[in-house]
Amino acid sequence: MARTASARRKGGLTGTAAELQAGGFPVNLVWRPQAGPQTLLIACPADDILFGGARGGGKTDALLGDAGIYSQAYAPHFRGMLIRRTYDELDEVVARSQELFLPLGAKWQAGRYTWRFPWGGFLKMRYLKRDEDASRYQGHSYNWLGKDEGGNFPDVRPLDKLSATLRDRNGVPIREIMTANPGGPGQPWIVDRYIRNRQPMVPWRDPETGRVRVYIPSRLTDNQALLANDPGYMRRLRGSGPSWLVAAWLNGDWYATQEGGVIKSKWWKRYAIDEPDATPLERRLALPPGKIVAWVHSWDTAQKDNEVNDYSVGTVWAVHETGNAYLVDVVRERMTYPELKKAATDLYDKWGADVVLIEDKASGTSLIQDLRASTKLPVKPVEPDGNKVTRAVSATLLMEAGRMWLPTRATWLLDFENELTSFPTKGVHDDQVDSVSQFLMWLRTFPLTHIPQVASAGTRMGLTSEGTAAPGALSEKRETRDAASRTRTPKPRSRTVRRGPAGTEGF
Description:
By secondary structure, the chain is of the alpha/beta class.
């Protein structure tokens, strides 16, 4: 890692390989940018750069390489911070950084998740656990900021708070780089800020901030090292998602759309949520006036008790007295069976429930038995009727009738919408589709007196024209009790919070 003379700062210790070697630092070339976008990134003079736009484009390597080169060019005054959205994502970056920085003689402070370079300067590695925790870094000062996989951040505001920490009293130019792909929850704001009405590779000055921005595209074909070392990567990528999303990943298409399956997004209604990470209380307050007559959880579990490759999904619904259903939360994780059981009880603690629907097969059967034996959760086994596509088609009748409402913003919303609208697609997970279909099939038999008079979601879905349950509707006492009693929400229990590494709280 060395920087050209044209990029050096005037005066003081500069960071060319020759000068570092003359100063007693060992020179060990461990990384050089590949020809193309990575080289352009290292040489780019803009101070706000979007790099990437495609899977496998060498984004994280370029980010770490730029940090290493900048630390040498502006030694000993380099003050850097690199962030990821989650702790698990950050671990992958840390592992790669150890391959690059340890041979340079850098010291890894594991307790503080910080690199200390032998020529001076540091690079903090952090994750943004909650958006509001960005406020903890007010008063800090950095001259280099890397935001890896920025598309995983649904809201730009916490990232902008971190950008406000960019300043330097030693004359080091501030530098900010963000990597991203299409298809993440942050895609809308990334398009607005860097893509729309802008040409790639053409810098422009933001009229409000005065900062010089530029988008440097990087495709999989630009990462010849990956293609040579893992020739099957492109083939696996093509089978890892719906065709529209794979095309976006390969081509860097920020305007690709997902429509085309049996479920259409135009059928969904929206209720307003200001924050993607809104609390349960804030989501409750966003629901329309009137009674919520039932809180319902719908669980679709992995196929086997010990299955960790498939997802288990839990959705939480508020059923309004009008018959409309409002989705307020989604849990989607690869879980072992003990983790699945804990997730079900945690979700109950978080929201309360009048009914917990669980598909009565595979690991769901064990979950039903365990929850009934060890908890007071109102579990209701569900026997699946027909195949996945048949159930989804039946559920679309309520969607077409305008009975399914989604929030305008949520951290899980984009993945949720992508899965539903791309169903059925070979090779794409459909666990969220199953959870939604299960709930909507239950809803069609739910006895309400205010169900809208819509043929496609009334008589066609097993309800009489008066809105009462038709023959064959659920007859259990829990399902036919007075609707007013359903407004009762169980008191939440205390929850255990997983902590990250010491010194990285909030990140």
